[in-house]
Fold this sequence. Notes:
The mean pLDDT is 84. The protein is globular, with a radius of gyration of 21 Å. The two termini are 28 Å apart. 81% of the residues lie in helices and 0% in strands. The protein has a single domain (2-202, 216-405), classed as MFS general substrate transporter like domains (Growth Hormone, Chain: A). It has 18 helices and no strands. The chain is mainly α and 415 residues long.
Amino acid sequence: MFDAWDVTLNGALIPAVMNEWGLDRPTAALLSTANLIGMAVGAVVWGTVADRMGRKRAFTWTLLVFAVFTALGALAPNFALFALFRFLAGVGLGGCIPVDYALVGEFTPRTARGKILTAMDGWWPVGAALSFFVSAWLLAATGSWRWSLAIMILPALLIFWVRRHVPESPLFLAARGREAEARAVVDELVRRTGATPVEYDVVAAPPAATSSRVPAWLAQLARLWREAPAVTAITWALFLTVLLVYYLALTWMPTILKEAGLAQTAALISGAGMALAGLIGVVVAALLVEVAGRKLLLSISAPLAALTLVLVAATLDDPKVAVIWLLVFGAIIQVAIPVLYAYASELYPTELRASGFGWASTMSRVGAGVGPLVFAWAWPVFGLTACFVAALVLVALAIAAMLLKAPETKGTDLA
């Protein structure tokens, strides 16, 4: 929810800071780029921490870092400092998704894992919708974008406190050879749930050859490409292309709709409608992911979502029709993204799971950070429709690679 709220907030902040500091469109786009590049750095840093030092440690601290620098961003006196604080807030928040999906996946039985990991993403459209609605309300009530940042701080600190009580992943503990601690976590869960205790084995992973001279993040990256090169290449391509389509919509749709003739508040509310429509997509994904499988569902929904965004651009002469297509886009893209997150978290073994997801997430953040800058330049040169067609082609290429080379993970045990 916080990830969605923060990313979506960039779309509401860009036109506001353009007005306050007299920025042109490409300069204002640096705000989104700074935030998303920060998330890219955070995904690598916290994913490595999660795989080397534990899911719980990374899980606890990501939101605290986010809250501190979000508070400083609300007080920023100029655009340069504001972009810096948004970058650092992104470093904190960027670790949430890879760490969270690794942790939840490792606590979930295989028969329900796809459904639960997919349903987790139901909080994304909630966060995105709240961001649009709250931003529109605060902008109308106060005339200042700063309250849109300030209001996020207290819930973030509350979640930091809650996260401190989440147990460490027993799969991580087992993989690190900490059998007694792994058994303590499992036995306590059995006791608390009232289940009948049964005998079970704790299997440690063989130790990986590492060098103390190599930074942990670089060692994990080398292992990803050494031990799972095809999976890593395909996962990166999927995250880069599918999330690029969504981030372009989140970042620029309020501006696009405003320039098409909608008032700023109406444009923000239309963006909120797009996000809320995503709840339909998440429900569809959760119902079908264990039936159709990850690959089939993703191969249909991702290109269809990109195509729908092309239709949004093609119908902007009639903003009401464009908004209808935007709602359809919001529903379909939220079939693709939850399935992609569930799928990516299942493709790697425990020792690489958070790092693998983190690096894939980094590719999406880098693409989404650079994408708005390229988009701001290409939009007036080639036109909006052509830009979204190019994004559709990239998605189709990534899906083709997945269908040819990536395994299906439905019903498999986590290694």
